[in-house]
Specification:
This protein is of the alpha/beta class. It contains 11 helices and 7 strands. The structure holds S-adenosylmethionine (SAM). Its EC number is 2.1.1.-.
Length: 262
């Protein structure tokens, strides 16, 4: 999905491939500002010191990793399952003059190609919902982050049970958006604990992230003509429909989590 859709998506949404954070719960700031703000909200939940090495799980095209490196003066290794994303992220690091500090590789979060305790901290910015086995990915993170190291996660959740036609919407999000691990905050916390992590904070920021759904649908509708040639009419319309329906579902939520390796 990301091999084919990253470029068209980034063209209309911006290269931060994640939801925005609007403090007021209404879209009173541009998308680019709100997506940077979401990165900053996650940054605020990361404990890492200058010179330390942080793993970025599901790095997209590298924008959050570069912000992390610049803000905290850390080294970052980003991984993604998408080779074109890794190539773009590496080019961005090069352009930013940070290619020694920030590197990107192809890799699968559920089977990390790193030794035990290789990192001081890790974050996953809107990537763990893609995991077919979230506990397995979290166990891998626990393994590669040293004892005492920090983990920060931003991700989609459902704030309650879903009934009737809304179940089809969630199914469409799973199928079309690759959202394989979708559940409540309690499910997330249970998965973190099952992976052996100490949970520090689980904050429901559904209200602050929700304008993203409206904005996403709006941008995709407005830019439909630019998206169709690369993504295809069927895919674009399916995406718009799913976003509009999710926007009508009060259970469509978002969480910020922080944890520590014991
Ligand atoms: C919604 S994007 C977020 C990208 C980036 N964190 C950002 O905020 O700009 C999800 C990312 O997760 C990556 N991803 C999906 N499944 C993965 C897996 N099994 N292992 C590693 N990365 C994965 C995708 O390639 C993509 O980069």
């Amino acid at each position: 999905m990301y091999d084919d859709h990253t470029d068209p998506f980034a063209r209309v949404w911006g290269a931060n491939l994640h939801f925005g954070y609007w403090e007021s719960g209404v879209a009173d700031a541009p998308i680019a500002e709100a997506t940077e703000r979401m990165t900053d909200e996650l940054l605020a939940r990361m404990s890492c010191s200058p010179g330390e090495h942080v793993l970025d799980v599901g790095c997209g095209v590298g924008v959050p990793a570069l912000r992390l490196a610049r803000t905290r003066h850390v080294r970052v290794t980003g991984i993604s399952t998408s080779a074109p994303q890794v190539a773009q992220a590496s080019a961005r690091a090069e352009e930013a003059g940070l290619s020694d500090e920030v590197v990107f590789h192809c890799g699968d979060a559920m089977e990390l190609d790193f030794t035990d305790d290789a990192f001081d901290a890790a974050w996953a910015l809107e990537s763990l919902h893609h995991m077919s086995d979230r506990v397995r990915a979290l166990r891998e993170l626990r393994r590669v982050v040293r004892p005492g190291g920090s983990l920060a996660v931003a991700d989609f959740i459902l704030t309650g049970p879903v009934h009737g036609p809304d179940r089809h919407t969630v199914e469409a999000f799973r199928e079309g958006g690759g959202a394989h691990s979708l559940g409540t905050i309690e499910d997330y916390v249970a998965d973190l604990r099952q992976a052996g992590l100490d949970v520090i904070e689980a904050l429901d920021v559904s209200t602050q992230a929700r304008p993203s759904l409206t904005k996403h649908a709006e941008v995709f509708r407005d830019e439909r003509h630019r998206l169709v040639p690369t993504m295809g009419e069927r895919e674009v319309d399916r995406m718009i429909r799913t976003l509009e329906r999710l926007d009508e579902m009060p259970q469509a939520g978002y969480v910020l989590l922080s944890a520590q390796v014991p």
